[in-house]
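ok so heres the complex, three chains, lmk if somethin looks off
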Amino acid sequence: MAATQAPTRTVGAPTGTRPPADGNARAVRARRARTAGFHLTAGLLSLLWLLPIALVLVTSTRSFDDIAAHGMGSWPRSFTLANFGQAWNEGGQGHAMVNSLIVTVPTVLLSLLLASMAAFGLSRYDLPLRRTLLLVMLSGNLLPPQILLIPVSKLSEVIGIYDQLDALIGVQVGFGVGFYVFVLHGFMRAIPAEIQEAAVIDGAGPWQIYSRIILPLARPALAALSALSFTWIFNDLLWAITVLRTDSKMPITASLIGLQGQYVSLWNVIAAGSVIAAAPTVAVFLRFQRHFVAGLNLGAVK
Amino acid sequence: MTPFTTDRRNFLAGVGAVGAGALLSGCVTQTSSNSPTSQSSSGPVTLQSNLSSPQAKTALETLIAAYNKKGGSRAQLNTVASETFRTQLPTYLTSANPPDAYTWYPGSVAEAYAKQGLLLDLSDLWQGPDLSRYSAAMRDLCTSPSTGKKDFVPTDYYWWGFFYRKSNFAKWGVQEPTTWNEFLALCQTLKTKNVAPIGIGAGSGTAWVASAWFDYLNIRVNGATYHRELLAGKHSFNDPQVHKVFDYWGQALPFFDPNGTALAFQDATTSLLEGRTAMMLIGTFFADAAPKDALGDLDFFRFPVIDPKVPMAEEAPADGFFASSRTAHAAGVKDLLAYFATAEAQELYIKNSSGTVLPTHPDAKDNGTPLVVKGRKLIASAAQVTQFFNRDSSDALQPTADTALVHFLSKPKEVNSILTTWQRDAQQIWSK
Amino acid sequence: MAVLTMPRRRPGATRVPPLVLAFVLVPLLVEAAWVFWPALQGFYLAFTSWDGLAAPRSVGFGNFTTMVHDPVFRTALGNTVLWLLLFGGLSAALGLGAALLLQQERRGIGFYRAALFLPVVFSLVATALVWQGMYQPDGLINQVLRAVGLGGWQHAWLADQSTAFYAVIVPALWREIGYVMVLYLAGLKGIDPQLYEAARVDGASRWQQFRHVTLPQLSSVNAVVLSVIVIDSLRSFDVVWALTRGGPYHSSELLSTYMYSTAFQSLRLGYGSALAVVIFVLAFGVIATYLVRAFKEAS
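and the predicted structre for the whole thing:
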């Protein structure tokens, strides 16, 4: 998969070139100053960005008495890991985490399967109205989700899957697929037509072209979308509370809201809960960072 | 991989059903009338609960466990965050396969559901050995004015008052006030002690606690009858009487904690217990957010007298349960609710919760602390009892009050326009 | 953008294999079942008065005429436009700025990029909780202000009508800038370095290079950034709702929060649906205009 990643290319000033051997001292100093300036700016910016995260991490290890007496923003005077246990067990986050994964993994796979099929059809064949279809599918993603809440909960009831994780998978697939089609369409359209024409001459049908040629070529896009959609689906709250009503079925985000309702003033427990809820997506991000970064702008691939 | 394949199969089957199912049975707005017999009536009775604070949640869990141990029908508790619960309650009740029983409040706030025939008729339960002995006031509160049926089982009630820490009042050398002027003088004294005299937690999603101030001032200035009529839309929030309420509020406003509109009431509780604020007008449920060791140090005084000619009414909201009329387990639900109505169940609940509520059963013992004894006396001596802003009107009216009152707390000078806006917003709810 | 997948033929002459048709129709049907069909019902509700319990009552365009005279709607509409401009403009500008700053591969760059991107993977629930902690009266922001001697600037950030709107935009930006930055980073990477060399040979200054090479080359990325920003502006519902619920007294009210509170708190579901229709028309208007233009250019 890595081979299909665009090799990183430096843009602008060639930083790799060494200064001339006779050593223009002034140029070297200027370059060092620029480097220092860069690291100072970028470092401060990163620090600023990480500050809220650091606050949560610190808060999650403080005791309630410490926070109550000195305030959230004060220097910590206590250290405990008990909050994580409280959020995980009494707060019900352990169970909710399992639910989240049961929903997220099939949803990602199913969404991408369906989206790649549609994108293949729309981008590689001269379907009538294909632009309109693409726009219509994307427009589903533009609907304010709130307008769908009540109809969707009634719909899942009519089908008989209300309050089941299936309903959550269904609505997440339905709501997400439009955007994935749009992105994959952009990517697949860029695959040269000659490859497909050669396959047609060799007698390959649409299924072979889809599964043997286009899908493998679209792997970087699929990898990127998997990573992205994992975070989106994992982080959903609105759909979960719309089609589910049993606390033992709720995913981690709804459980975090429940945790907040349960421990409103216990900021340490809430912070621990937030850390737990964010851990899987952070892990996915750190593990698949390149896919995120390389593929995020697939819609704009030229 | 197993979960995936099953899920996908079910899902695809579901999608197939959409074409037939959704199109035929069609409209979303129809409160689906599938007969509940289509579902199995053998499963446990489900109880949907919004009691999500740690102590109340545990207490209810213990209660359900005790009930299940008795044999007979089984019950299953389902606790969801109270905000989720509130927004989803209409969906629950109108669904074809609803949860069986719910935590909720009696009175106006349940009436909209009763009117639509969504609540299970519990009149026969009220003939039973326990509920038949409940006070007449409770019985009336649980009878729907539109259907004449009793559809609610109250299990406990509590009171509102100015809570404070005894040790702090002793430290500052101050006493409980009884009249409005004494109250203002107390605030003045406290201010010199470098403490915010009046705490409130009307921010972060608990803006509704500000309504307690409006309720009490209106009850003390204009009386409980006027208050109820106002909430029912028979008067205008623009009336001179209402303006008078805000005149009094304005006198106390300089003594409010400036952080009060930025904190949830639970965080305001922390401020009170830490001595950053001196007292807070709140219901006893706030103790659920307090460490148990602080409970012994808490005391309260009743909202001071403003006009001695006005009979002293108190806010004493009741909590309890109702059930869905579409339940497939009518007998099981009634059995569960009948258990909740017993003295034994109520005492068990009180023992495991923060213990600051009063049981509705005449024989049930409260936890007997001086605080609770005092609270019981307060309600017993009240000329009339009100519930709370939303409970005496509707949940739909509550957001209009939240907007108006929080606005007033930070911009008291704009009271005229605030009340005009409030009346306009309320009118939209009443005429809905 | 100009690659055409297949040579264009006379319309109607192409025979599309049935399997390909199924490939397109199955996802379309799934979306239709879960999105379009519910949406149609939502649109229908927009022309009714409904409390979620009794049968809805048709009111024609009543909800839309009510809107015209509804001052909260006007506030929410104004705030939404301001949100689009501020949130959209700032995340585009700062995202591009961060991308330009961090575009060169050099030591430590991975860390900086990861730091800026990290908030993107947080759920809005977690984000809101984090920032609620930051904005607490005794939270980090106020404590830092006090520590550096700016105690007078301390604020109840979320509870003050003059600051709430901006206080809510900050966490939204915190999540968005990293995302936009990554989009632009990839866009910058795709620019042919020879273009810069040619510009340098012509004696173009850095600003001129940016103005005449970078910006035009990023135009296709801009389209994506625009769609992402508009979609995310609508999704900003969660973070606003969690932090202020549109308050205090509607000062941070967006159309999406107003829609939600009208529908689910005041139980005016008909009016709430009408508000949702307005949101949809706005979003679709912005994006469709852009997409249609992009498609035209492509063909």
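quick notes: Chain B has a mean pLDDT of 87. thats all i got rn
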